[in-house]
């Protein structure tokens, strides 16, 4: 009887853990003008002025909270010593980028939103002279709150590591122009990090200042 009780307790615990893991995260769907259906992807790129829509699947009576994750581009960061410092170019460790998670109150309880420079323009929370609202990259997170209070979240600041923002945080990039220059324009709003590593530049986490 004792063994049977232990087995039941184990099964209950396993069921709880499975439930937590199953409902701990949620996907953000995105759609641009050229898409014929909604897509789950970590990054989406579109020319400036074109529509980019985001959506999350919710159940009846669930609440929705959208957030913009904004890096502080008003300051410069470093992974290596600057040329004018002692031991120039020596590795100094990954610089920690400051971020702000801004709740987009105007989209509360909306399952679908459209990313627009009109409201992005109001979100320069660090008053950075390098913040652009109509071109460059922007990061988003969504939280879904169930009737029982349990939260499901897409990837966000809590998933950061020593290299910076998790590469799976949804990034929306607006480009200006075509070809190489168009790609370069998508790097506006990416933090300037002296001595950034390829992983950071490839995933829009940081660029060596000279690349601006």
Q: Can you tag this structure with a few keywords?
A:
212 residues; 4-stranded antiparallel sheet; alpha+beta; globular; single chain
> How does the major sheet shape up?
6 strands, mixed
Low-confidence stretches: 10-23
- Round the mean pLDDT to the nearest integer and report it: 89
Number of strands: 12
Order of helices and strands: HEEEEEEEEHEEEHEH
Which structural class is indicated by helix and strand composition?
A: alpha+beta
Nearest-angstrom radius of gyration?
20 Å
User: Could you say which overall geometry the principal axes of the C-alpha atoms support?
Assistant: globular
Number of helices: 4
- Sheet-strand content, in percent, reads 25-35%
Please give the share of residues in helix. 10-25%
- N- and C-termini, Cα separation: 70 Å
Could you characterize the architecture of this molecule?
- With 212 residues, the chain is of the alpha+beta class.
- It contains 4 helices and 12 strands; from the N terminus they run H-E-E-E-E-E-E-E-E-H-E-E-E-H-E-H.
- It has helices at 2-23, 117-120, 179-185, 198-202; strands at residues 29-32, 39-40, 43-47, 52-55, 63-71, 77-78, 99-103, 112-115, 136-145, 151-153, 170-175, 193-194.
- Strands 3, 5, 7, 9, 10 and 11 form a 6-stranded mixed sheet that branches. A 4-stranded antiparallel sheet has the order 2-1-4-8.
- Strand 9 (136-145) and strand 10 form a beta hairpin.
